[in-house]
Every structure is written in structure tokens, then in C-alpha cells.
Design a protein that fits this description.
The protein is of the alpha/beta class. It is 45% helix and 23% strand. It contains seven helices and twelve strands. Strands 1, 2, 3, 4, 5, 6, 7, 8, 11 and 12 form a ten-stranded mixed β-sheet that branches. The protein has a two-stranded antiparallel sheet with strand order 9-10. Helix 5 (173-193) crosses helix 7 and helix 6 packs antiparallel against helix 7. The longest helix is centred in the C-terminal third of the chain and has 43 residues, at 225-267. The chain is globular. 34% of the residues are buried.
Length: 268
């Protein structure tokens, strides 16, 4: 018998790509989407789709949103993809064949093919990218140490599928820049919770290193203007991360001194 699969997606204002995404996972037995109160018609599209169960939930961070989505799955095997990703027919076939034949593994890595304005991005640090996308829900949990670029903790053996997941990572400059700014702010909160301290060395040197490493060492220059753009915006995310971390630390200090002042006034 074919192994039943639940496909999970989280969304926020994804009307430009959600139809392509949902069509590519229509082979799943159950499709559940957790929407963060989209305002562009994404929720309305999902609400009308006959195969989709959609629920709205306020967004806190990626880990909490995906953990909530995982809790809604009714099948043991889960396929988790982003709204800007697409499962190809060959990958669909490999997923089905793998689940019928392999009994030893509880999770599978997917390699991804990155698309920049509809054209492949071959280098720029993305050539070795892979993520867990298919797994047994009772054998995994999302690590609560991460807010963005969430990490799965796996209880069992894992393997890598051959076919690649298509990731439409870059629609236009402003869209990708907005994504990097969002990631940077979340990473700053993550650093604060992990008690990582701001320092100017990180603010000044890490963005330069990130750009140089991806553009030169990881051959981003071979992607032309696409590589230059992606590597620049990747470095921008780090600038935002440490700038925001500095702001959060200052806010915490102000709040602390304010609370101390209030207590001293009360004592007097």
C-alpha cells in the first residue's frame, strides 16, 4: 500500500507563488497550510482550494510556526515545503518510491535548485544547500534554539534524495531585501536569547567575510550580476542582525535601569 503523506506549508502574502506550490504537492493525501494573516489574497485562495486545510495563526518566528503546523498533521510521514518551493514530478515519484521501499530511515534531506528571476543560480554559496523536508513526525522536533533557518532534531537515521526541490528564492530586489531584513531581525532576537553579545568586530568584519566567501570562494562571481546581488544581500542580513542586536541590548538596559529607578522611588 502507498504510504499516506501530509504536506505542510506556512504562508504570509504568497499569492504570487502559492498556486504553483500547492499544485506541486497535490499528490499528498493531506495538505495543511498555516497562514500568518496574509493581506494579498493568499488566505482567500487557500480557503477556496478543495484539497487544502488552512488555519490562521499570528507569526512569532519560523520555528514556532512550523512546530504548530507539524502538530496539525494526521499522517505519520510529513512533507514540509516553503511557499516559494516546488516539488517536481520526478521528485514526487522519488518520494513515493522511497517511502514504499526504505524502512530504515526516518528523515530525508532535499537538495535545492535555486531560481533567480526564473533562471538557475548555480553558485554564490547555494550549491551545497540541503534541508530536511520529508520525515516521520514522531521522530523529529524543531529545535527551540533557532528562530530562523529552523533546525530539526532527528531521532533515527536519515538519507538524501537524488532529485532536487525547486526554490524560487529571488523574485525581485526589494522582495529579497525585505526577506533578508526580516531574517536579520529574527537572528538578532535569537542571539539575544542565546546570550550572544554585540561587538563592533562582528558588525564590521562578518558582513565583509560573508560577501567575500560566497562571492570569491563559493564562486558567486560566476553567477554574474545574480551572484553579486545575492552575495550583497546575504552580507546585508548580517549587518541588520548585529545592528538590531545592539538596539535590543540598549533597550534591555534602559528597561532595567527604569525598573531599578521605579523601585528606588517606591522605597523612598
Amino acid at each position: 500500500m502507498r504510504t499516506p503523506i501530509t504536506a505542510l506549508v506556512i504562508t504570509y502574502n504568497e499569492v504570487h507563488c502559492i498556486e504553483r506550490c500547492i499544485s506541486s504537492i497535490a499528490f499528498a493525501d493531506e495538505i495543511i497550510v498555516v497562514d500568518s494573516f496574509s493581506t494579498d489574497g493568499t488566505y482567500e485562495y487557500l480557503l477556496k482550494h478543495p484539497k487544502v486545510q488552512v488555519v490562521q495563526r499570528p507569526f512569532e518566528n519560523f520555528t514556532k510556526q512550523k512546530s504548530f503546523a507539524l502538530s496539525k498533521a494526521t499522517n505519520d510521514w510529513v512533507l514540509f515545503i516553503d511557499a516559494d518551493e516546488q516539488v517536481t514530478p520526478k521528485l514526487q515519484a522519488e518520494i513515493s518510491k522511497t517511502l514504499q521501499s526504505d524502512a530504515d530511515y526516518v528523515a530525508y534531506w532535499f537538495r535545492r535548485k535555486f531560481m533567480f528571476c526564473g533562471k538557475p543560480l548555480h553558485f554564490s554559496g547555494w550549491q551545497t544547500d540541503k534541508n530536511y523536508r520529508l520525515f516521520r513526525k514522531d521522530k523529529v522536533r524543531f529545535s527551540d534554539k533557532r528562530m530562523v533557518h529552523e533546525t530539526l532534531e532527528i531521532n533515527g537515521k536519515s538519507a538524501i534524495l537524488n532529485e532536487k526541490l525547486i526554490h524560487y528564492c529571488y523574485r525581485d530586489f526589494n522582495n529579497y531585501k525585505s526577506k533578508m531584513l526580516h531574517y536579520g531581525r529574527l537572528k538578532a532576537k535569537e542571539c539575544l536569547l542565546q546570550d550572544k553579545k554585540f561587538n563592533y568586530t562582528c558588525l564590521l568584519l562578518k558582513p565583509f567575510w560573508k560577501f567575500s566567501y560566497n562571492y570569491v570562494v563559493r564562486l558567486g562571481f560566476l553567477d554574474g550580476i545574480k551572484g553579486l546581488t545575492i552575495c550583497y544581500l546575504g552580507a546585508l542580513e548580517i549587518i541588520v542582525r548585529y545592528s538590531e542586536l545592539r538596539k535590543l541590548e540598549l533597550d534591555n538596559k534602559r528597561a532595567y535601569y527604569y525598573s531599578v529607578d521605579k523601585k528606588s522611588v517606591f522605597v523612598e
